[in-house]
């Protein structure tokens, strides 16, 4: 692995659970950086997706929290931490340890996580520490523990390249884990790996699959029970493995055996023929990996979904061997690290739970004065307890629950009512920061230093290359400070290396092979060795090969290939998984199923990716993806606005009409917040239904009503300055995205259009009507555009948004000025909507290349450069090729805006 080349710093991407290594060369002012994939990092071998490539755009200090504050007043760290300590101390004294809580994040580093968990569970004496990873992979954790006796991902990324069949369940991997998807695509090119996608939607991932099973939302258990039943009667059944290494086969089969082909077809909405094809392919292909993600986990039956998948691998003995096994991919960069330390309320520490011997062991190791004796409150329960008054003080760290938790308006109300809300964060724009009594300025990627663990159990360093700005401090430091102020020993760490050593030592403490998680080989890592630590996979027990400097990638780091599991008798358990329907089902009042998820170029609540004009150029506003027939029945037209609602909340969203959606099912991305849209916090509409085992919310299956919104006009504007709150509050709809040197807004309203133009544009503006009758105004400062606004009273604005946005950084020539007044770019200048973010290639350029003879993705790449870097846009390129062949407009997500 390359540590430092020409002042490059080797670190790890802070976004998804692929955990790509990146090499960073910061600019001298620290506000940007050149970023490239680390060719030697085993997660990505030099690849990066566009989010990773654009990390350098996200380093600016705009909207950065730089100083502590209490009740809105800037103060010192000393006073802020004294306020935190006073609040926690008083609550614990008066109401006991369960009156306080930490809500942390898969974004923090393992060292931060370790200290938070030690403080809450070992010293405060409560298990009320949970994490936003509860929303991400808690069902996988529960499924693993039920089947394997421990939370273990058996395989590694090589398995994806050594498989002959990959089944992806509930995962838009091409957008959400792009580098893994690219690794799979490369392997397919080489060995012809078959790809089966199980997803209610057509997505960028289903494009190019050998078989797409567009399952009825929530019916996965029925499908995998039927597959289990089929496999149990096929030659693929591994009798010896079942007999020697498992329990529970008969019980599980007695449930799954009821799933016949006709009945399963009815439950899943799939044809018997497709089911048969899938079952035969699975049975016939020994090297099969089943990848699953949020479509499985975020469900009221999430744990059963996981176990129904694992059952199919146990019945065939296909686990822990090259190219085979169940494979849960984590959404967040350090969800796995959180699982290791015990960041979930139902874990104690280092893969130990609340068995009496575990409690005694951890208590002894920590010299804990008051160790927790049982599980604490999981995320949804925790915020219910805040609202009910049970929790009097909560510290939220590096997460935005007012946007991301289900029933998000209730979370907002809970925090509003809580006596002490402490928030450690970096962005003033976080909706949760606005509700904090104490705000602590945290360090972020580029400033933090520590470790993270990716989806294949690989621990990598995040290294700092920037000085913390203002008074920002590390989370582990702030947590240790609280521990000391509360009078506890055990928090005098002098840096993350010391924390890492203690954590590695605990992993090995009285382990002797009892627990899967053991990194005892690293227990004596010195500070210099920690600085140069190379990525390694666990397990790494003391005496094992991997030591500082050597990569231990390899088949010997798969689990369970010897049939040894971590249950009492070392046998895996088949779990009987009865099929249950999702908790909220469509009704006359709420006839649509609401699915939520990620888009290609944004991350979580956009406090980081929203700073990048590159990333904001692909999809610039929140949208509702809906089937054409449903749109027609509702009176929704392309690029119009819709209002979706239920008893929990409502949202206003741009309409994207596409046959990728099933009838009566809609999709809305989860990234938009009050900071960048008038009403698009989609989790405000998600019911707080959770899986009974894992506590994970059912974020993939809400129910909503949908109506058209009929504004008097639609508008688009670019501006060097943000619009005022007063202006925004007077609108029916707005969404803002970053543009280079400014902002781009989609707006709609009811006030007379000319009055709105007068309000937003100043007296110096040139007001005019475009040739197609849209109201417009432009403001110039010498040869620079200051603001452009256009409003249409006849429907969504038609404009070349990408071109107009680019004008903020362009010298305005007379020709361009004429183009502005004419409402269209001078010939050959408009690139159109951004498709390839890496290389800045727009739809007009791609269509031009196709019209000139490019007939393949490679041909488009040769002509324009699109798709030649990270490859995430290749499905959209294929869609444009198909649309051109059919002489039809493409149905791609970014066609939302009526350009
Ligand atoms: Fe970062 Fe994930 Fe993209 Fe890799 S695939 S660069 S970890 S967002």
Structural write-up:
It contains 31 helices and 34 strands. Strands 5-4-16-15-14-6-7 form a seven-stranded mixed sheet, with helices on both faces. A hairpin with a 5-residue loop joins strand 30 (766-769) and strand 31 (775-781). Helix 2 packs across helix 20, helix 3 (110-124) packs parallel to helix 15 (335-341) and helix 8 (220-232) crosses helix 12 (272-284). Residues 13, 15-16, 18-20, 44, 48-49, 51-52, 177-179 line the site of iron/sulfur cluster.
Write the layout of secondary structure elements.
Blueprint: E1 9-12, E2 21-26, E3 33-37, H1 50-53, E4 69-70, E5 73-74, H2 77-95, E6 100-104, H3 110-124, E7 129-131, H4 138-148, H5 158-162, E8 165-169, H6 173-176, H7 178-191, E9 194-198, E10 211-213, H8 220-232, H9 239-245, E11 246-247, H10 249-256, H11 261-268, H12 272-284, E12 288-292, H13 294-297, H14 302-315, E13 325-328, H15 335-341, H16 356-366, H17 379-388, E14 393-397, H18 401-404, H19 408-417, E15 420-425, E16 438-441, E17 450-453, E18 458-462, H20 475-485, H21 496-508, H22 527-531, E19 536-537, E20 572-573, E21 592-597, H23 613-616, E22 623-626, H24 628-634, E23 641-645, E24 650-657, E25 665-669, E26 702-709, E27 713-719, H25 725-729, E28 733-739, E29 742-749, H26 753-760, E30 766-769, E31 775-781, E32 784-792, H27 801-806, H28 814-822, E33 834-836, E34 841-842, H29 843-851, H30 857-864, H31 874-886
Parallel strand pairs: 6-7, 6-14, 8-9, 8-12, 9-10, 11-20, 12-13, 14-15, 15-16, 21-25, 22-24
Antiparallel strand pairs: 1-2, 2-3, 4-5, 4-16, 17-18, 18-19, 21-26, 23-24, 23-26, 27-29, 27-32, 28-29, 30-31, 31-32, 33-34
Helix pairs in contact: 2-20, 3-15, 3-20, 3-21, 4-14, 8-11, 8-12, 8-14, 17-19, 29-30, 29-31
The structure holds iron/sulfur cluster.
